[in-house]
Amino acid sequence: MEFTHRIATSNRMVSLIPTHEAIRFLKAKGYSAMEFWADTLEAHIAEGATTMGKVKEALKETGMAPVVHATADEDKTLYSISSTDPGWRERSIRGIIRSVEVAAMLGARIMTVHPGRTDTEGEEPSEEHWALQAGSFREIHEAASKHGITVCIEMMERRPREFILEPEDAIRIIGSVSRDMGVTFDITHAYINGWRPDDGRIEKIKPYVRHIHFSGHSREKAHSPLFSSIMEQGYLDAMLRRLLQGYGGMVSIEGSLLPRQRTLEKQKMISERNINYVRENLGSLRKRS
Question: CATH second-level architecture of 7-285?
């Protein structure tokens, strides 16, 4: 393998290519894994662009490893498994458990889940929100563990209604549910939240990290292509060096164009340029010869 760890990118990054073809395309460019947003895969199947059988055959043929990102919204409304509205909370849980079923069919062992949120902007999370968050994750974990899938709570960026932002927030939920859960650490979220590569909080969260996301960042978009980022040179590499010590999982590149800018050719170009950026700029992921 060219890199120290498996490098994935999301099926959303290549959403205009039938999924089974996208797996082969990414493999040819140097990727060794795909992160499947469950709803994007389900949409491709519903449209007739692919089948689960074709996707599994492409994974087997290429040796690409699957990892799953749970669906995070319905009808463009973000799920919230900590909502005090029981109807919306239950729909959110059921949507995420459908993602568990997708992960099981793919043979994935890791599934990232966005945590629940408060109900309104400016609202401080109440003890009820925390209890509902833990209870919902308990239900999701129980469904996933039957298939040998580790549920990873993603630490989010500072934006309205989010309250899983710091190591102690994620650790509190894991402690309430199961030590078999893990954390998805998003380096770009950390950047937005003001973390530095020498931040002591990294050592607090490292024992729980089972999956890593990274991307560029722009003023227009939280997750932009690596090659068009406003992050200072060296930030990603320094963060990865800290996080990858003793880490055996994969790393997943996010960061696409705005929807109005997406075309098939641009998706292919960005996927190739992102992996080339890793080769040229992220020594933390290059194998030493």
Answer: Alpha-Beta Barrel (3.20)
